[in-house]
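Task: complex structure prediction.
Instruction: return structure tokens for all chains below.
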Amino acid sequence: MASKVFEWLDERLGLNDMYKALLDRPEPEGTWWNTLGSASLFLFIMQGVTGIFLLMYYTPSPDHAYDSIQYIMNEVAFGWLIRGIHHWGANLMVFIVFVHMLRVFTTASYKYPRELTWVIGVLLLLTTLGLGLTGYLLPWNQRSYFATTVATEIAGLVPFAGDFITRVMRGGTDLSALTLSRFFATHVWVLPATLALLITAHLYLIIRHGESEYPSEED
Amino acid sequence: MDEKHKQRVRERYQRALQHGEKFWPDSIYKDVLVSFALFLLLVGLATFVGVKPEPKVNPNDTTYLPRPEWYFLFMFEFLKFIPGSIEWVGAILIPTIGIVVLLVLPFIDRNPYRHYSKRVLALSVMGLIVLDIVLLTVMALVPAPTPEQVFFKNLQRLAGLTIPGLTLVVLFVLARVVREPASQRKAMLVVTGLAALGMIGASLATVFPLAASAPPKEEEQIFASVSEQIAAGQDLYSTYCAECHGPEGRVTEIQGVEGLDGRIVTAINSNDVMYTFTDETLRNIIRDGWPESGMPPFGMELSPNEIDALVAFMRYTWDDRIEAPAEAQAGGIPALAEGEVPSYDVHIEPIVKRYCLSCHRPGKENNNYLMTSYEEILTTGDNAPNLVAGDMDSILLQVIQGHEVEGKTGTINVMPPNGKLIKDEYVQMFIRWVEAGMPQTADDAAAAAP
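Output:
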């Protein structure tokens, strides 16, 4: 019965072909250092899942943002755990993505034919940092408020366009409800969607060219 | 890159695949294991370290020192080396160059080789930059040198900017000048090694003394539960509000307060206030004041968390539509059992806090009689001593029973001054306390009991 169901599905979905193309691939011998990419992906998924949970209770308005997080931490069942994982996951993700990049640099895996994989990887790092920056403001506490004030001030140092950039980031001259909702929308929608698209391209390129081998004396 | 080289790369990759592994299950197994370990790590961090509580936003707090996330700290530290007039060079130009170089790295790095021994330049540059990032982060974690500590400041600049900057230049010059591969490699490794030692040495020489000089930091109070909020709100109320509004919020005419004497106000414990003002309104009035009615703003003195605590105290104590949580019996002045001797810690301090402290603290007009601690209550004041063990004519006992007393400073008024004595029950506590010799702790009181 089970094999019949599988055959029926395979005929329509091409499960066997998928298995061969995605999973049953030969690879050069790897080490534990090769797990950093998948670890980054895992952390991104964790951030997505915990982020969606937080989204159910979080209110992106200056009047309620802080209190809604207090509520998550004190009242919601396991809210402290979800928030804790999201908080630490964000920190760990930046760290793992950075170490992943160092590994790729050290083994020169960005060279032919994997140049584009590297370029997309750098974009992934930047998007991750952007998520960290925008997420930092959301708890609407002293630390996030003043850190964001400084960050948007720094953006204002860009020659000529600085003022304009700061005003766009803040939604006005000062940090306000508009800043919070802008950072919120960027944090929960724009950047995660960007990241997901970039990850898809990154993974496609990895499957297309295969994982790189460790360089030998003759390379 | 020519076709022949590409061909060689492809061939070698095919050979590597021959004696490699399978994605499933060999690689996946390792991936899953690492991800699972990270998951456990995250749960552990969330459970045992948690998220550090932070006070609510308070844009008026100009003393707050902003700190970026740890992964931006190195930038923050690096910026300190750049003079303010060209801040944009450090804040915008250098990071932008860094990002662009990273993005187009595969196209800049024309070296076709991959083995470590043939990429000494690239690896040295990476090593130096990573080391600099780590050292800058460490330097950002300890207190910055004061303007007088010029030596430390220069040493940090040397470690974080001068040495790595110059070494990068030297490395690229070496790549051009020394063409023989073996000696080039050797020269680069020596230069990088020396530079790394210099950077580590210079930065650690500043980090340890600076870390030792860090002042202990004061943490702002954050209240975990409603009961804690109410208890804290009670103390704040007694300190900041009771002087005008009275210990129970009943006052309708302010008495004996400089500048506001005789002012008619609404009793803030009344239903008029409790039913018509929302928490938000109360918060705003406390923070920004209400000039027409004489209410001064407290936004500079009190943090938003403290204002929240005050509002919680008012709401749970005076609003008859809401019942306070059982464990939060606001005020906490315990009743005295038959034959029990009161102690300062358990009985007297809460009464003093609620009824006396708002005036009898530093900076108020009180004949220098301060009541913030046991010692102060016994010893301070222009008419000291105000309390003498066993003496029923002690000044404090007399005035709280409604008798004026002649002292060194002239006539001492009845206390509290707004014409309403504290509850007789509390007066009795004071009398029995003085009779028993004014024990400080509950143990002392028990020992003094007959």
